[in-house]
Amino acid sequence: MTELIQPVILCGGSGTRLWPLSRSGFPKQFLCLTGAESLFQQAAKRLAGLGSVDLQVAKPMIVSGEEHRFLAAEQLREAGIKLGVALLEPVGRNTAPALTLAALAATADALDPVLVVTPADQTVANTEAFTEAMQAAVREAAGGSIVILGVTPDSPETGYGYIQSATEAQEPVMLVQRFVEKPNAATAQQYLAEGGYYWNAGMFVLKASVWLRALEQFRPDILRATTAAWEQRSTDAYAATPFMRPGKAEFTAIPAESIDYAVMERCPGSKYPVKMVPLDAGWSDLGAWDAVWSVLPKDPHGNAHVGDTLATDSHNTLVHATSRLVALVGVQNLVVVETPDAVLVADRSRSQDVKHIVNDLQQQKREEHTLHRKVHRPWGWYDSIDEGGRFKVKRIQVKPGASLSLQKHHHRAEHWVVVCGTAEITCGDKKMLLTENQSTYIPLDEVHRLANPGTIPLEIIEVQSGSYLGEDDIVRFEDHYGRSQA
């Protein structure tokens, strides 16, 4: 008999401790931190590889915020993986409601697959070991068990919750005795010395029906509220990508709770015991820059450098250079992260404290905590390359066949110069085609649209001028991506 696996990838979170690369508009799960693929793409490929003679893998289901839907869909397309459905949360309500949405979606067609639930922002060095452990967990869960993966610890980490097994010797599948909170350093050292404790990686394997029954037992309020939101769902599709939205008002009313607090920590000793499969596969959640340093290749001096870098007499440093040369002289244990609009310099041992910088940016209402200078959109991207008192200059790229919304601005006019490709431009009641080195002017308050009818990317330089140049000065009349306002 073949068991159906439903991959569920949880794409929430903003990864504030990995600022300035990770920002709420482009969080860490979509970054390429350990290779040529993003953490999200790596997670999707790991789950797609779980199939075997007795295990069939369905198209992945993702739970994401509305603002990241096109980014996730595009990264799956680039990875050659077809999306099953994207469940779009109107607001964040932690992981228990997210998993409940996935379970309701998975059982909507009278199926009851084994849900393999993983965060989107982890890395695994040994894919074969991961596959072997996860397949063992799936086969155990197929019989009705709740299964969690426990990472075999190699250091006294204080940043993870722990799982205590009920058996002293490591076995392929073990009963969980209890879950424990993130310990202090002394307690973590004690756990490591005693053995029988494992890091909680936040990966869960169980049938959809089992999750719904356990949630009804322990948190019926979350089940009722999430079901109410599910019943008010709506669906749309862009380029054959299914986006499903629960009812906004109903979802907002759901109590925010994690999978662990809502159900898992209550299970030991109940009629829903939890089993654990040990995972020894070079796992990391890349929670901060020191974790990124630990998994990257290093030179003989312990330096892990990405991008255009030079170093002399420097040891155990991490440098991530995005847009220019970064040089180090005579330093140790530093983290230097360079982006076009922000540079972070930190002691590697203080990596966790980067979140305080992000808090300060939020309090000061600075854009650097949310968006990069280069901003991705479903139609392409724009890069704000210069700005002054009454002007802003952008480099804009539009994908072949894509177009921006039909829109207007109350406070700015725009000049467009085509530098590559062909632009189809709507301006008022006129429509025109422009090619390389040709330009046009969009007056203030004029309804307009930019489209790429060609087969290669379109690039233009846009010069904005006016009294207000904020991104919120836009009125959309028609949009292919569900963003129109009028």
Task: Give your account of this protein's structure.
With 486 residues, this protein is α/β, with parallel strands linked by helices. The protein contains eleven helices and 31 strands. Strands 21-22-23-30-25-28 form a six-stranded antiparallel beta sheet, with no helix packed on it. Strands 7-10-8-9-13 form a five-stranded mixed beta barrel. Strands 15-17-19-20 form a four-stranded mixed beta sheet, with helices on one face. Strand 8 and strand 9 form a beta hairpin. The chain is globular and about 75 Å long. The protein starts with a strand and ends in an 8-residue tail after the last strand.
Summarize the structure.
22% of the residues lie in helices and 34% in strands.
Number of domains: 3
Helix content: 10-25%
Mean pLDDT: 93
Radius of gyration (Å): 25 Å
Low-confidence stretches: none
* Strand percent estimate: 25-35%
How would you sum up the global shape? globular
- In the sheet with the most strands, the strands line up as 21-22-23-30-25-28
CATH superfamily of the largest domain: Spore Coat Polysaccharide Biosynthesis Protein SpsA, Chain A
CATH class of the largest domain: Alpha Beta
Number of strands: 31
So, CATH architecture of the largest domain? Alpha-Beta Complex
Number of helical runs?
11
Chart the SSEs and their pairings.
Elements: E1 3-10, H1 39-48, E2 55-57, E3 61-65, H2 69-78, E4 85-89, H3 95-106, E5 114-119, E6 123-124, H4 127-141, E7 146-151, E8 162-165, E9 174-180, H5 185-194, E10 197-207, H6 208-218, H7 220-231, E11 234-238, E12 241-245, H8 248-252, H9 259-262, E13 274-279, E14 283-284, H10 289-295, E15 304-306, E16 309-312, E17 318-321, E18 326-329, E19 334-339, E20 342-347, H11 354-363, E21 374-377, E22 380-387, E23 391-398, E24 406-408, E25 412-420, E26 423-427, E27 430-434, E28 439-442, E29 448-451, E30 458-466, E31 475-478
Parallel strand pairs: 1-2, 1-3, 1-5, 3-4, 4-12, 7-13, 15-17, 16-18, 17-19
Antiparallel strand pairs: 5-10, 6-14, 7-10, 8-9, 8-10, 9-13, 11-12, 19-20, 21-22, 22-23, 23-30, 24-31, 25-28, 25-30, 26-27, 26-29
